[in-house]
Amino acid sequence: MRFASPHPGRLVLGAVFSLLLLAIAALLLVRPSEGASGQPNFLLPWQHGQTWLTGVSSFHNANDALDFFPPDTPLSLDVKCEGDPDWVFRVSSYFVLSSAPGLVVQASNASVLIDHGGGWRSRNYHMTGFVVEVGDYVPAGQRLARPSTLGFCSTGPHDHFWIEGPNGETTADVTLSGIPATEIGSNTYYSDTSNFEPAGGGASPPPAPTATPPPAPHGPLRGDANCDGGVNANDATTVLWILTGHTNPECGVLTADTDCDGLITIQDALNILLHVPALSVLPATACPTPIPTPTPVPTSIPSPTMIPDDTPAPTPTPPGSDYGPVATRAP
Questions:
Q1: Which one of 3.40.1280.10, 3.40.50.300, 1.10.1330.10, 3.30.70.1560 gives the CATH number of domain 2-30+219-279?
Q2: Contacts of 181 (CB under 8 A, 6+ apart)
Q3: Across residues 128-140, what is the average pLDDT?
Q4: pTM of the model
Q5: Residue 214 and residue 203: Cα distance in Å, rounded?
Q6: Which of 14, 99, 120, 281 is found 20 to 30 A from 271 (Cα to Cα)?
Q7: Better-predicted residue by pLDDT, 191 or 136
């Protein structure tokens, strides 16, 4: 894969076009998604009958995330980060469960990301021991992974859980097992939620079964330049960053090349913006490799065959034969 470097004479035009792409991206990001009129029936992500602790974090509350601590995690406010000399890898014996049915789009790098459809996603962070893979369709209550201390900084094994909605909704806008998320968390780091204990991932009565959708194509999605499992206007922005050398293109080296021309160009960003619905369902299998034209093998010219001459060579004339017999002297 080659990356087309911006031509010096096109820098101004490229900058203007980049601003246009970003403007279009902003419009796409605020456009309501189809089928997103209501949120999924999210459940608390642990097994019915277990008692977990929960709270909000004062230093990493992206998307109004909630921290769920399994029963075997010692309570502590001592934050340790990977790379610290006293950081220790620890893992819980308990499993985090899927909070709603959906498609696994990431199960790596301490994270499980599930697409629930309609623009709704949930993420479980600090995970290890994954029991699902990308492309798996999971029901609510499916085991995903175990909480651990992996994933930057933590106070111990826990599930850093948050939800993203189609129109900017966060965890604070949803309910979990029928409980408003704002009533589950607290402004202090820990809050005992044993009174919510019956509403775990395997809550009773179980939700009505839903039809299993056809399996999604395996592999990353064509146009998913930032490899987050979806295709949207943010991927067009990632293409622009790749072109300017501000990001490592290894992730999107296959998926950002939307037109399979062997280059990552501004045209790929435009393709993402104009064809997001189509690109989001295309697996990014390898682009077809052009078949090289075979080089003709030169035909060797045979060496000419020597034809023997049938004409006999003339007999040499003895010396003096032109003047008659040679006189001899008597002894």
A1: 1.10.1330.10
A2: 64, 66, 163, 171, 172, 173, 174, 175
A3: 95
A4: 0.49
A5: 26
A6: 120
A7: 136
